[in-house]
Write a structure and sequence with these properties.
Elements (H helix, E strand, L loop, with lengths): L11 E2 L6 E2 L2 H38 L7 E2 L2 E2 L6 H6 L14 H25 L4 H18 L5 H6 L11
Antiparallel strand pairs: 1-2, 3-4
Helix pairs in contact: 1-3, 1-4
Length: 169
């Protein structure tokens, strides 16, 4: 594998030995496959958000969508500084609503697939092949365009929106 920036087309090894480009045609097919993988990554991110919305809606419908309250105070009101200012240790508790096991499994599976694909695309990027890097970027852009057509305006304005881009995970 070439560890320097390159424009090599024929005789390129992409990620593993079996994905060896031997002609212009196989390189074009590899380029399109990487674009598809980049778009798939964006679809997975969109699917994660949609699944979380469905789970949250179901929890709210069951009356379970409230943050826990402890001793008449909202748990989120405690800050890390409270223990330093008062000398009393702050006991951290989990904030949020417990998610049912089946939903946790679904969320974990989608998350694992997203992490796997992000690292796989990182390995494609690490071929240092300018064309394959371009394919990753084009795939991410196309995927974001297709699967990112809606926005939660309130979440964006309040700063709570998922703004994580194509990071490793």
């Amino acid at each position: 594998m070439n560890m320097l920036w390159n424009y090599q087309i024929v005789d390129t090894c992409v990620v593993f030995r079996e994905w060896h480009v031997s002609s212009n045609t196989t390189f074009a097919l590899s380029f399109l496959a990487v674009v598809a993988l980049g778009a798939l990554y964006e679809w997975l991110r969109s699917a994660q958000r949609a699944l979380d919305c469905r789970i949250a809606a179901a929890l709210v419908a069951q009356g379970k969508g409230k943050a826990p309250v402890e001793n008449g105070r909202d748990v989120e009101a405690d800050s890390e500084d409270a223990g330093l200012l008062t000398g009393v240790p702050v006991v951290k508790t989990r904030v949020g609503t417990p998610v049912p096991l089946s939903a946790r499994i679904s969320r974990a599976a989608l998350y694992a697939a997203t992490v796997f694909l992000s690292f796989f695309l990182m390995l494609v990027f690490m071929t240092y092949n300018a064309y394959l890097i371009l394919a990753v970027v084009i795939g991410a852009g196309v995927g974001h365009f297709v699967f990112g057509s809606h926005m939660d305006v309130q979440a964006v304005l309040s700063g709570t929106a998922d703004v994580k881009g194509m990071a490793c995970h």
